[in-house]
């Protein structure tokens, strides 16, 4: 969000006038010639905060706020609950064991907590400048904001086909027509309905996602209660207690690496990476700020409360799954090399024909609760994955629209055709939604061949690699956010040291701080260093292999590439683990090369939050909504 988004005429009209979002003219993004951009950089421009708020005002006029506090609070909790918690727990158990997976999710939860409270402090100070992307432009460098925006768009876009294909694969066990054709139909229907919901405007999306997110929250709470019931002896296996922790054991020695303690740690480290992928999206409240009613009050409130519910839901689900399912159960997925798995208490070699399943469905089968509950959970998991995909379309389309408004994406993505649906005025960035829909078509790459469903096509391999890159992209987003906060924090400390009256002159800057903010910058440094370490150690396993040749291309005389049943082909695994890093750096340095942007010096950071919307506190009407408001 460089100052090039303002035309020279607009700037001249502002000279000598008060600088507020109300009197800042809307940017003329069409004036992008190199000569004009060079001239604009030499001209006097309004303060940076007011420019960003003027841009945010323009976005608010194009997309009127229609998402209320109850929407954003519940969506920020349930909107990110998808296959990561219901299905992904399977990989966590078989890689680290019940205690190892629990510790890994506790560590990841603490990282997420540190990220969320840091973002919450900044968003509470400036809720109307574009969330983490706008804050990065103001306190670090516009190049970092550019890279964070495109990285966030890529992440939410590629997760979309992953969620849709997961929902379709969950439904593949239902009887009926040919498996491949059934997957095609499932992906088509799910993608079509998700796109249709997003075409009806933010209010319809908010209502639909509100009830779906509430359903997912109730579902995960019900699964935790059901798991405890099974563990306490209501299933046909009788009392289970902590026996799964004793046998096969609390930890899994990853690939029998010696010494065993080191193997246990590597299994835990592998699950931390998986958990980061599952947790990503907790900052959705800040992303949706442009279409949130009264963001000054509702966005900080949602950000402050969301971490504990996400933390408890995920950690609670992993704890419950570890009580009721053995970590070496064959149905959790392919075991590690040279290891047997267990089926109905009997150790046996792994059978590739056994379909991987959720630990909760496995527990229901073993408890003898019948097929009705199993089918209900299967459909519920598919609905949860589809709901997460619907949220991904919303987020990716709004990221594209925001980037286009900043002049960092094609201009046609800014168009928001207007029409009426009953009494509701609908304005949607349809071209951005269309681009998100086109990316969602990648979900069809996961459909197996109709002639031989066991054959994995090259396209399917490419799709897996693209999906695996989202984990590194997620961590890059967190790293960028924490770097922004650290600059924000030390810039404020510099002002406090140089100006004894800084606190008295900026009371709003300190009014939203809570007791845990007194610990800063320790939580921010903890999250920043942890994310950097996890990101660079993401593909650690490929560096330990010396028994296979590294090949980046195939020749006709080459044999088949070495493929690990658990990790996949080694070279593509390495590339997909680290490719987002050079792309992220390319976005930063490419922007700096083109627009000559400079890092904001600490002494030049803005500490005037401009015109922030007035907080309007409204109490919900009705007994049901009062309960929802109290919980969320």
Outline the secondary-structure elements:
Blueprint: H1 8-14, H2 34-42, H3 48-62, H4 69-78, H5 83-86, H6 89-125, H7 131-139, H8 142-170, H9 179-199, H10 202-234, H11 243-246, H12 260-279, H13 284-287, H14 295-324, E1 341-343, E2 346-348, H15 359-367, H16 371-405, E3 418-421, E4 424-427, H17 430-440, H18 458-498, H19 502-505, H20 508-511, H21 522-536, H22 540-543, E5 563-564, E6 568-569, H23 570-578, H24 580-595, H25 623-631
Antiparallel strand pairs: 1-2, 3-4, 5-6
Helix pairs in contact: 4-10, 4-14, 6-12, 6-14, 6-18, 6-21, 7-8, 7-18, 8-9, 8-16, 8-18, 8-24, 9-16, 9-17, 10-14, 10-15, 10-16, 12-18, 15-16, 16-17, 18-21, 18-23
Mean pLDDT: 75
Number of domains: 1
Percent range for β-strand residues: under 5%
- What is the overall shape? globular
Count the E strands. Answer: 6
Q: State the major sheet.
A: 2 strands, antiparallel
CATH architecture, please? Up-down Bundle
* Name of the CATH superfamily: Amino acid/polyamine transporter I
Region (Disordered): 1-44
Organism: Sistotremastrum suecicum HHB10207 ss-3
Biased composition (Polar residues): 7-22
Main location: membrane
Question: Can you put this structure into words, describing what you see?
Answer:
- Residues 7-22 have a biased composition (Polar residues).
- By secondary structure, the protein is mainly α.
- 62% of the residues lie in helices and 3% in strands.
- Mean pLDDT is 75; it is low at 1-31, 34-46 and 453-457.
List keywords for this structure.
transmembrane helix; Amino acid/polyamine transporter I; 6 strands; 632 residues; two-stranded antiparallel ribbon; disordered N terminus; two-stranded antiparallel sheet; Amino acid permease/ SLC12A domain-containing protein; transport
């Amino acid at each position: 969000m460089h100052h090039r988004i303002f035309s020279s005429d607009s700037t001249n009209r502002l000279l000598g006038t008060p600088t507020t979002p109300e009197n800042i003219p809307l940017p003329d993004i069409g004036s992008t010639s190199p000569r004009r951009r060079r001239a604009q950089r030499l001209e006097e421009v309004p303060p940076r905060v007011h420019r960003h708020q003027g841009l945010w005002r323009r976005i608010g006029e194009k997309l009127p706020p229609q998402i209320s506090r109850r929407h954003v609070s519940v969506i920020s909790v349930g909107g990110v609950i998808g296959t990561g918690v219901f299905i992904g727990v399977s990989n966590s158990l078989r890689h680290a064991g019940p205690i190892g997976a629990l510790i890994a999710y506790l560590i990841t939860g603490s990282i997420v907590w540190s990220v969320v409270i840091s973002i919450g402090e900044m968003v509470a100070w400036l809720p109307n400048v574009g969330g983490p992307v706008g804050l990065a432009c103001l306190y670090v460098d516009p190049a970092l904001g550019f890279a964070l925006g495109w990285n966030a768009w890529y992440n939410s876009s590629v997760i979309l086909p992953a969620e849709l294909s997961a929902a379709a694969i969950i439904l593949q066990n239902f009887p009926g027509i040919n498996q491949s054709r059934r997957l095609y139909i499932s992906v088509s229907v799910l993608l079509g309905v998700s796109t249709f919901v997003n075409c009806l405007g933010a209010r319809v999306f908010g209502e639909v996602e509100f009830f779906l997110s509430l359903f997912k929250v109730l579902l995960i709470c019900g699964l935790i209660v059901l798991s405890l019931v099974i563990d306490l002896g209501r299933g046909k296996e009788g009392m289970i207690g902590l026996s799964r922790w004793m046998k096969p054991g609390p930890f899994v020695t990853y690939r029998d690496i010696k010494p065993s303690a080191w193997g246990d740690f590597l299994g835990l480290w592998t699950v931390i990476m998986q958990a980061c992928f599952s947790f990503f999206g907790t900052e959705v409240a800040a992303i949706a700020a442009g279409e949130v009613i009264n963001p000054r009050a509702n966005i900080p409130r949602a950000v402050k409360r969301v971490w504990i519910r996400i933390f408890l839901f995920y950690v609670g689900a992993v704890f419950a799954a570890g009580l009721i399912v053995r970590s070496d159960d064959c149905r959790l997925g392919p075991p590690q090399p040279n290891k047997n798995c267990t089926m109905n208490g009997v150790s046996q070699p792994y059978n590739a024909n056994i379909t991987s399943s959720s630990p909760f469905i496995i527990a229901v089968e073993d408890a003898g609760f019948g097929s009705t509950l199993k089918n209900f959970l299967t459909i519920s998991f598919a609905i949860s994955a589809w709901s997460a995909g619907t949220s991904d379309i919303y987020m990716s389309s709004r990221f594209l629209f925001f980037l286009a408004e900043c002049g960092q994406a094609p201009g046609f993505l800014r168009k928001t055709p207007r029409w009426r649906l009953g009494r509701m005025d609908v304005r949607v960035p349809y071209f951005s939604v269309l681009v998100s829909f086109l990316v969602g078509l990648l979900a069809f790459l996961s459909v197996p061949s109709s002639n031989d469903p066991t054959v994995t096509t090259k396209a399917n391999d490419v799709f897996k690699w693209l999906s695996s890159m989202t984990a590194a992209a997620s961590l890059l987003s967190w790293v960028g956010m924490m770097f922004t906060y650290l600059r924000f924090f030390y810039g404020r400390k510099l002002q406090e040291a140089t100006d004894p009256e800084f606190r008295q002159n900026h009371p709003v800057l300190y009014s939203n701080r809570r007791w845990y903010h007194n610990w800063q910058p320790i939580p921010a440094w903890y999250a920043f260093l942890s994310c950097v370490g996890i990101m660079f150690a993401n593909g650690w396993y490929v560096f330990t292999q010396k028994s296979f040749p590294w090949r980046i291309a195939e020749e006709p005389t080459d044999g088949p590439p070495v493929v690990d049943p658990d990790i996949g082909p080694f070279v593509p695994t390495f590339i997909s683990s680290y490719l987002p890093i050079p792309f992220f750096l390319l976005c930063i340095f490419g922007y700096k090369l083109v627009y000559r942007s400079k890092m904001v010096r600490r002494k030049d950071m803005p500490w005037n939050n401009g015109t922030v919307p007035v907080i309007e506190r409204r109490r919900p009407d009705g007994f049901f909504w009062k309960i929802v408001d109290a919980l969320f």
